[in-house]
Amino acid sequence: MSVIVQNCRTCGGRWFPVRLLCPRCGGADLATKSIERGTVQHLTHLGDVVIASVACDPEPLLVARLHGPVEVGDVVELTDRPGPSGRPVAFVPPSATPREESS
Ligand SMILES: [Zn+2]
Fold first, then answer.
1. Which of 3, 6, 21, 61 would give a disulfide with 30, using CB separation of 3.0 to 4.6 Å?
2. Does the residue 103 lie in any domain?
3. Which residues neighbour 23 within 8 Å (Cβ) at sequence distance 6 or greater?
4. Residue 84 belongs to a domain
């Protein structure tokens, strides 16, 4: 399981969702990178739904829906395909993810 983010080849910044230019250096040489885990920074409970900000070593900071019992500071797996894995995961909708490079 993972989420695809953009990685700036000029400054190393990682971005999500998709950008046309790197917001840090203005570079246009943006590759894709697969991120598998992140650390839960904040939780928001909306009824039965739990939304979290998840830091990914340390960029990008993702907003994700959590599935399973998770506390602030926990490391969670990231996915863009929610499923009945039984493990706690942070779900980022696929419509918000950049397409992976085909090469
Ligand atoms: Zn950059």
1. 6
2. no
3. 13, 15
4. yes
Dump pLDDT digits (tens) for 30-79: 999 999 999 999 999 999 899 999 999 888 999 999 988 889 999 999 98
User: How far apart are the CA of 77 and the centre of ligand 1, in A?
Assistant: 26
In angstroms, what is the span from residue 6 Cα to ligand 1's centroid?
10
* Distance between Cα 25 and ligand 1 center (Å): 4
Using the structure block, give the residue that is written with the tokens 């998709």.
18
Summary mean pLDDT of the chain: 87
83, part of any domain: yes
| Number of domains present in the structure of the chain | 1
Give one word for 57, left, alpha or beta, with left for phi > 0 and alpha for psi -120 to 50: left
Ligand 1 center to 10 CA (angstroms): 5
- 29 C-alpha vs ligand 1 centroid, how far in Å? 8
Query: Which residues form the domain of 60?
Result: 3-96
User: What is the rounded distance in angstroms from the CA atom of residue 52 to the CA atom of residue 77?
Assistant: 13
Distance 57 CA to ligand 1 centre (A): 16
In a domain, 58, yes or no: yes
